[in-house]
Amino acid sequence: MAEMEGLAQRQELSQQGRWRLRALALGACALCLGGLALPTVSVAAAEAAKIDFALPQTVEESEALKARADALHAEADRLNAIAQQQCYQKFLVNACLDDAKKAYNRLNLQARPLEQAVRDFERAQRQADADAKETKRAADALSREKEQREQAERYRADEARRAAEREQKIAAKAAQAEAGQRKTAAEEADRRERDADRAKRKAERDAKKAGNAADGKSGRQGVQ
């Protein structure tokens, strides 16, 4: 009888031990599943998080915003890899993978407004650069046109100055030649006048000599 009671007690203890082991195993499994579920909770929290940002006004702000978008994609990749590992621990693997993919896509969508803001800034920056280049090109064209006009005006002024100088030289040469001719004519007239005066005086002297000679001859004849 005592042996039967001892056997019953041992069976009861064995049954209680099995229940305790099962409870411990279930607890450990729950802890494992809970640990594996943490990333899924992080994905959901990340999906629900609202991304606040200011539109970039400088290249540095645009680069920083792009880095935030890249970080969101990297975080989505990391959480998706963990979620896929979880799915292979579950019974409905394909359904879990579909949910993980949807969560991955929704998380990546959060980066789109940031990337769109970066693209808008870069587009505006390219347009501003193009406008600046066009403005500079137009200004350079006006500057070249002005320089060409000024060069043409300087050329015409130089040509007019050289033409005036040539005309002045020609006029000066003509005046010099005319002055030379007048001087030559005056000198010739003066020479002729002097020659005429000398001829006149010579004629007067000759006439006087002839008169004196005639008077002397007449006197000698009267004496005879």
TrEMBL record:
Query: Which residue windows does the record flag with biased composition (Basic and acidic residues)?
Result: 122-170, 180-209
**Descriptive protein name:** Chemotaxis protein histidine kinase CheA
Question: What is a GO molecular function of this protein?
Answer: kinase activity
What is the organism field in this record?
Rhodocyclus tenuis (Rhodospirillum tenue)
Q: Does the keyword Transferase apply?
A: yes
Which keywords are on file for this protein? Kinase, Transferase
Q: Give the span(s) annotated as Disordered.
A: 122-224
